[in-house]
User: Fold this.
Amino acid sequence: MSIKHYSGSCQCGAVAFEADLDLDKTITCNCSRCQRLGSVLSAASGDHFKLLRGADNLTEYLFNKHAIHHLFCKTCGIQGFARGTDRDGSEMVMVNVNTLEGVDPRALHPHHYDGRSV
Assistant:
């Protein structure tokens, strides 16, 4: 698979976005948040992610080092993405593949990231 354009949203539709993602490079994580959410994640650079609607309906959760801005819908509670920075300082968005239209995340083969040890 290569980079393709995807649309995603929260459950109620108040928050919607588009992103260019390579779903051959997904990850799961065992940190205290991701493991509980069951997220399958794919990375997009900041310029390959566009929030279409719902900026005013997002709320933020920070934990641990407060480096990742976990954003979720105030109405339905779904976290579609999180914002942070890459090692080089560039903006990065981690998209929850479970929120993408037309994608079966259980058919993917994600790499496991040991976030619990970080």
